[in-house]
Amino acid sequence: MSGVMRATSAMATAVKTPTTGRDAGRRAGRRGTAQRCGAVAKPSGPPENLERLRITTPWDDAKAVLKSEFGATDAELKHAESLSDEDLSKAYYMMQLCRDFENECNQAYMAGKIRGFMHLDNGQESIPALLADAIRQDDLKHSYYRDHCHALACGVDSGAVMAELFGKDGGTCRGTGGSMHIYDMDTNFQGGWALVGEQLPYAVGAARSIVLDKMLGREDAHDRITVVFVGEGGAQNGRMAECLNAAAKENLPILFLVIDNGRAINTFTKDVAANQEVFNQGKHYGVPGVLVDGQNVQDVLRVGRAAINHVRTKGPAILQVHTFRFNGHSPADPEHERNRKDEKKWARAECDPIKIFESSADAARVDLKNETAKAKLEVQRALDFANNSPPPPPGLAAELEYPDPSGKVDYSAREPAEGLASATAVTEKIVPAETLKALKARIEALRAMCVDPKGISIGDAVNLAILEEMLRDPTCLAHAEDLQAGSSYNIPANTQQAFGTLRAADEIIDEGHFMGKALGEAMNGYRPIVELMNANFGIYGMAELSSAGNTYATTGGQFAMPLTVIGAGGTAPNQSLGAEHSQPFHAYIMGIPGLKICSASKPQEAYGLAKSMIRDNGPGVLLLPVKMMKSRGPVTPDSFLPLHKSTVHHLASDESVKNNKAVTIVTYLHGVKETEEAIAELNGQGIDADFIELTCMKPVDWKTIQTSLQRTHKLVILDESTRTGGVGATVSAIVSENLFDELDAPVVRLCMEDAPVPYASEMEKTVVKRAADLVTAVTYMVNRTA
């Protein structure tokens, strides 16, 4: 058994069985076992009640693991082992910089200059030392909420980081992100993500972007890597297994850097995890892992260099760094959990990586006083910059809602980022000629259907839009379940056959996973299209969709988010799908800032909105009616529709308006078909309607509704979401707040009841509204106001 593996056994031995001060015999026996296996303490010994000890991972033992698990050569290990005076000085400086920076952050927090949540990194400084040593500026970095020191070590300006914490305009994100959301485009520092584990699929997407860059022939992609940080508690999240699978399946250049401080926030990780050996999680997928003592910066540098070199030259890897966090989870943490204060006191005295280095023989090779002074000077500069930086303008939040402000972009004229001619040349280079010929023939066949009297289906219309955009722009990607077979409605059909598995990826059955990968790709110059087999399955990806909506604003406008999500969903009358397939996903996501949400009930709208949304630089969701996907209609090829305007399908006759027998009907998805049926029946009674489809659900196009109400003065909403918190509730509130004087009667909402949608038709009729309900409501309103 190697030394590194023995250290792991020691860690497990030292933490599995809780002990008390009274259980001296068992505690002494366990301590002896831990020391024999490699986990050592100072001769005086730690307090009797501690449940977690320091481990050791001697370099000679680590080399054996790196050879056997990573296939490292003697030459590679020799390079990793060699630490020059400059290397050690740089590492010591970075540790001191991080320690001083975090200490000043703590003081500023207590003084009220930093607000909200803040998470300090004291005790874990060997990790930023490794980053500064072996991670390059062109590498992609995805951190989590404890991100200050990671940013500093990756080259982000300390003044900009401190100013962000102070909420100033000179901050990395102009004060929009704060402590948990540090981003910097120049150094490829891509978060700062606050939800535990959410950064994992984003980083996998970032790693895919590097592989995609290589495929597209971009010279700067050669040996770049992605590094993603996660705690050992966060690594228990199912996202970790999914991402290890994805990294192995495509041999992605990604390092999973696991920061193991023994705490899942405050909970002892061992209390909730059956196995804390995160570095072994990859074995099932063929991803090697290694454990290192994070209190010994020299070991961290050597083992970390070897792991990073493996990622640069071979493929994914896990590096687990065993550390101690000297502070609570945040400054507000009372630290009441068992033994925490004793552990912290002991660790500060005995497990401080800075003190341990200063007591090592290598310390003589570093001018400790000079490096310490340099670090303090830099932190003071950061404080001065933050204090002197002005606050952001109050209107900045509104300015950063969307990368492409509504109505300001001509999507038909937007070329690929590298230019249309260059994009075309790349496509011709990477797609075989015969494949390209077959693809163009398929596109022409679909375009012929657009003008055929029989028309084209909604599914095929969206498929045509996707194929055209992926052919035109090699940065367009597709993600879907069952993609090879065209998913359920042909939306992603032929994408993989034409563009290969990298650009058109068949996915595991977890929408959050591939939405997350798409987010990481979108941050790195790609235009991913995510197809949901059923829109309701997007519930699995709510966290990722929320972050997609937030990213442009939270990064201070640095990172656009050209991500398109397309799915068939909604609730048609008598669709007999039961509650889980009949949820109003569109209503669930209406509250996510930064999203543009559209719907389309006809092929023309589906095609034109899909084309525009794919070219938009922000995140968008296009919802389609699940029970109407095969309905046909005409489409104008190469047409683009605005993402901020509703569609007026029918205007009430002047006669009906004059006779006060006209109403405004607002609906979407399956409600469009129901409304068409209802209007035909109402016309027989001399009643007519302005018929508006919410092809843009967010932002709400209330101006189009206003124009109609100035004619009809009556509004009925046929709403495919629940009475509480639904789309109709939002529209009704906006009308009441802005257009109250135009109303001759209260707004009528015909919406799904708050009860789950049942399967049996007899019950379902009481929950889901349809044409008959609309006829009754409109007739009542007209008669009431006559």
From TrEMBL:
Residues 456-631 form the Transketolase-like pyrimidine-binding domain. GO terms for biological process: pyruvate decarboxylation to acetyl-CoA. One of its GO terms (molecular function) is pyruvate dehydrogenase (acetyl-transferring) activity. Signal peptide: none annotated. Residues 1-50, 383-405 are annotated as: Disordered. Keywords: Oxidoreductase, Thiamine pyrophosphate. The keyword Oxidoreductase applies. The keyword Oxidoreductase applies. InterPro entries: DH_E1, PDH_E1_Alpha_Subunit, THDP-binding, Transketo_C/PFOR_II, Transketolase-like_Pyr-bd, Transketolase_C. Its cofactor is thiamine diphosphate. It comes from the Eukaryota. SUPFAM superfamilies: Thiamin diphosphate-binding fold (THDP-binding), TK C-terminal domain-like. PANTHER family: PYRUVATE DEHYDROGENASE E1 COMPONENT SUBUNIT ALPHA, PYRUVATE DEHYDROGENASE E1 COMPONENT, ALPHA SUBUNIT BACTERIAL AND ORGANELLAR. This is Transketolase-like pyrimidine-binding domain-containing protein. It comes from Ostreococcus mediterraneus.
